[in-house]
Design brief:
CATH topology of the largest domain: 2,3-Dihydroxybiphenyl 1,2-Dioxygenase, domain 1
Order of helices and strands: EHEEEEHEEEH
CATH architecture of the largest domain: Roll
Strand content: 25-35%
Distance between the termini: 33 Å
Oligomer: single chain
Helix content: 10-25%
CATH superfamily of the largest domain: 2,3-Dihydroxybiphenyl 1,2-Dioxygenase, domain 1
Radius of gyration: 15 Å
Length: 121
């Protein structure tokens, strides 16, 4: 079995293109009325149009799927993303070397350092 793509739901395609392409830096591969496709390190991230977005809720205690973006330095990436106006769910990166952020549609994602990096600490 191989991961083919990851799908998230958004209710504003213009805002989704701005967030994922401009703020996160993902390359847009395809843009249609109800679907955006972004390149995501060997697979594709598909933003599909929906009517309603989801509330963030109790992030750590509710079942959900989370995309985790691997970065070299959580602290540096956190700072850069905060400067772009990206909303984080943590005031600072956690000791577990990750930080959760939310897109404009309530989808929660994380930035984290690689497991190899954690083993060296």
């Amino acid at each position: 079995m191989k991961l083919g793509h990851i799908m998230i739901f958004v209710n504003d395609m213009t805002k989704a293109r701005w967030f994922y392409s401009e703020l996160l830096g993902l390359q847009t591969l395809l843009e249609q009325e109800n679907k955006l496709v972004f390149a995501l390190d060997g697979c594709q991230l598909i933003a599909f149009k929906c009517e309603k977005t989801k509330e963030i809720g109790d992030y750590s205690n509710e079942a959900r799927t989370v995309l985790v973006f691997e970065v070299v330095s959580v602290e540096q990436t956190y700072k850069e993303m905060k400067e772009k106006g990206i909303q984080f769910l943590h005031d600072k990166p956690t000791q577990g070397r990750y930080a959760a952020f939310v897109d404009p549609f309530g989808n929660v994602h994380e930035i984290a350092e690689s497991f190899d990096h954690w083993a060296q600490i």
